[in-house]
Design goal:
The protein is α/β, with parallel strands linked by helices. Helices cover 33% and strands 23% of the residues. The chain is built from seven helices and twelve strands. Strands 3-2-1-4-9-6-10 form a seven-stranded mixed beta sheet, with helices on both faces. The chain has a five-stranded mixed beta sheet with strand order 5-11-7-8-12. Helix 2 packs antiparallel against helix 7.
Length: 281
């Protein structure tokens, strides 16, 4: 199926963004929020996740026609802004949107507009955290599905449509051996989910809690293939845990899937995390 020229794929990653609500570090005092977000040790760890989990999975996409917008605060210290900007040299799909502290929907609407061409009829906007990954064929599958939704009228200028891939891996980065588990969620997740909307539509994939999307929008769901990696560690903003029904993968299989399905280098990440624990950069 030939891809539609009127549908752009754009992702938004909130990279240490000081949202006015929605995160544990959100505070009434912007100075307190900034101090917590931009703590050097925290930022070093966030960059390790971003550079070794999120970005490699996107760089390995079979369909490279997409944009990822890193949404950052306009008060982010220059040393971190420079490091973020330097990543654009290796990852041309990466753009940066700096904004003052805003609510989740207002801030992400601005970011999606930065990533999309002005006036494009439709945007298929996905969300991705800086410490998570998507499968190498995520954009390809996302485009094929969103194009079909538009062609059949399941999504249009007035009616958004959600695409949710529900099976993925949970990677416990704080546990010995960095075990990996496979699980299929019963509801849309915060990873590998997207919303098809008109360019200037008032809502996007961040409008509702991902667990409640089924109550607010038409949803196309697919539990068949491994489509995301969700990392579990002490720095998670949400209280992430391994699902009770998850299947633990043997190490050889787990690391093979991480390499082949997600474009990741698990041994390299393990080494970087070990250096961080030992006090290195």
């Amino acid at each position: 199926m030939k891809k539609r020229a009127d549908n752009q794929i754009v992702g938004v990653c909130r990279f240490s963004y000081p949202a006015t609500r929605g995160f544990k570090v959100s505070a009434d005092d912007p100075a307190d929020t900034a101090e917590a977000l931009y703590d050097p040790a925290r930022m070093q760890r966030r960059f390790v996740y971003f550079e070794h989990v999120c970005l490699p999975s996107l760089a390995a996409q079979t369909d490279g026609d997409f944009t990822l917008v890193a949404l950052v605060g306009d008060a982010m210290p220059m040393r971190w802004r420079r490091r973020l900007k330097s990543l654009r040299e290796r990852h041309p799909f990466l753009q940066i949107c700096a904004a003052e502290p805003l609510g989740p929907l207002q801030a992400t609407r601005r970011a999606f507009r930065v990533g999309a061409d002005e006036g494009v009829p439709y945007v298929t906007g996905f969300r991705l955290d800086d410490d998570d990954a998507v499968s190498v064929d995520f954009v390809e599958r996302l485009r094929r599905t969103s194009d079909q939704m538009l062609a059949t009228g399941w999504a249009d200028a007035e009616t958004p449509g959600v695409i949710a891939f529900q099976t993925g891996l949970f990677w416990a980065l704080d546990e010995p051996g960095l075990p990996v588990y496979r699980h299929s969620e019963t509801r849309p997740t915060g990873q590998a989910s997207a919303m098809v909307t008109a360019f200037d539509f008032q809502h996007n994939i961040f409008r509702w809690n991902h667990a409640h999307l089924l109550a607010h929008a038409r949803c196309w769901t697919d539990p068949v293939a491994d489509m995301f990696v969700r990392t579990l560690h002490s720095g998670n903003d949400s209280d992430r845990t391994v699902p009770k029904a998850a299947e633990r993968l043997a190490e050889r299989e787990a690391w093979s899937v991480l390499r082949d399905r997600f474009g990741l280098a698990p041994k390299r990440l393990a080494g970087r995390l070990a250096r961080l624990r030992d006090g290195g950069a």
